[in-house]
Design brief:
alpha+beta, globular, about 220 residues, 6 helices
């Protein structure tokens, strides 16, 4: 089976999406690239039915399916575009409640720097891509613009898309984006939000670049 590890990882991420309530029904999709191939969730399949052998595998350059019994996600073009624009290898697209709510606010064209975590997405804001019908070339093009210099974007009246070097990184960023969106919604319900400046966000980004952020636990035999 082509990309067996990647297909298994996608199934694991799908289970986490459901457990963390970042998706509803069959909404959202997940992909990861390995060389010239991309594994991506199948279209319209309930999350509790997804198995590694049902995950689709497509050619990165053409989008043509090369393995899998089911059609790939309707947002295949979105995933491939996100990978090309960001240079990242994994993409998580959700309809998570807070991120989708912010994307539905009239007049909001970006999620501002309400918290320094915004720098996790490559800049001092997260842009909201203009609306286009799901699965369309127009939507992929709109998201490409929103992702320039970023690893995350909101999609107007739709949801969010986040990219990372691997599936765990992309998933963590999706969680972080949902948290910042939730914080934004709560804050603006209570009063005007204090927004961090570009210089303040850049200082945080520089500190993370210089010192790193987070650690990994050693194996038990190394502890």
């Amino acid at each position: 089976m082509l990309l067996q590890n990647e297909r298994e990882n996608i199934c694991d991420i799908c289970a986490r999406l459901v457990a963390d309530k970042l998706v509803v029904a069959t909404a959202g999709n997940v992909s990861v690239r390995q060389g010239d191939l991309v594994a991506i969730t199948p279209s319209g399949l309930p999350y509790d039915e997804i198995r590694p052998d049902l995950v689709s595998v497509v050619d990165f350059s053409t989008g043509k399916e090369v393995d899998g019994p089911l059609a790939p996600a309707s947002e295949l073009g979105l995933h491939l575009t996100a990978m090309r624009v960001t240079g990242e290898k994994a993409v998580v697209h959700t309809h998570s409640p807070a991120a989708t709510a912010v994307a539905c606010l009239d007049g909001v064209t970006k999620l501002p720097a309400i918290h320094y975590y915004i720098c996790m997405f490559g800049g001092s804001d997260v842009r909201v891509a203009d609306y286009a019908i799901y699965g369309s070339t127009e939507l992929a093009q709109n998201v490409a613009k929103a992702l320039e210099g970023r690893t995350a974007a909101l999609m107007s009246n739709h949801g969010s898309v986040v990219a990372g070097s691997d599936l765990d990184t992309a998933y963590t960023r999706a969680q972080e984006l949902e948290w910042v969106c939730s914080l934004y919604l709560r804050t603006t319900q209570s009063g005007p939000a204090k927004i961090l400046s570009d210089a303040q966000i850049e200082a945080v980004a520089m500190k993370i670049r210089d010192t790193g952020y987070g650690q990994s636990a050693p194996h038990e035999d190394e502890a």
